[in-house]
Amino acid sequence: MTRFLSKVLLTAGGWLFGLIVFFPILWMGLTAMKTEAQAVTTPPLLFFQPDWTNLWTMLTSAEYLHSAMNSVIVALGSTAICLILAIPGAYSMAFYPGKRTKDILLWMLSTKMMPAVAVLVPIYLIVRNLGLLDTIAALLLVHVMANLPIAVWMLFTSFKEIPRDIIEAARMDGATPLQQMTVVLLPLAGPGIASTALLSIILSWNETFWSINLTSTDASPLAAFIAAFSSPQGLFWARLSSASLLAIAPILVLGWLTQRRLVPGLTFGAVK
Q1: To 5 degrees, how large is the angle CA 175–CA 180–CA 182?
Q2: Total domain count for the chain?
Q3: Model-level pTM?
Q4: pLDDT tens across 17-68, in order?
Q5: φ and ψ at residue 46, rounded to 5 degrees
Q6: What is the CATH number of the domain that holds 222?
């Protein structure tokens, strides 16, 4: 009976925790289906006639579609560049370590400990002097710099779990380092690479700080588009919720579709 009660309590606790985590998204979805007047009523309306005007307006808005396309280009582009740079780097550090390999890894990780606002002025000046303000290229550059340390660390951990004997056998068979990496290593490290790519896409898609400070109209992604609904006159809660709901929907769907590959990839190498 004690074991049964423990299972019931654990199950109830899990559902409660899941509800707490999901509640902001649920509330945002409800607010998106309200009018602006209904969204600011006190106490909040729990039962109302759904109004799809705001969602439809966002979906048919040229500005929203433009920002969504920018987000797709930046997220996928920065992820591809990250993988192109991180895979050889993680491969060399995992299978050809040097005396300073651990120091380099720690230094790369330490770059994530500094708040982005601390380097806002120098990066803004560099981007401005290069003539890259409000361009996709600027966002790609910044997102790659921000996500590359995490990508290298995740891939390094994944590669370290692959038996070195397999790489040695390929080397004895005459495989070049490039063949060892592309033909032997990459298929074995598929889950780790997939999870790294998914995490990079999510981080890039949700990035807000640089999107607001380095773009205005031409290259503004969804994060900047959503921030535009905040004005000195106040917040437009219904429209803000509609834009936010449409912005997170692709990531929610992507995470749900790839969760079986994402979880093993994130935990790959955690337990020996």
Answers
A1: 125
A2: 1
A3: 0.82
A4: 988 988 888 888 888 888 878 877 777 777 778 888 888 888 888 888 899 9
A5: -100, -25
A6: 1.10.3720.10
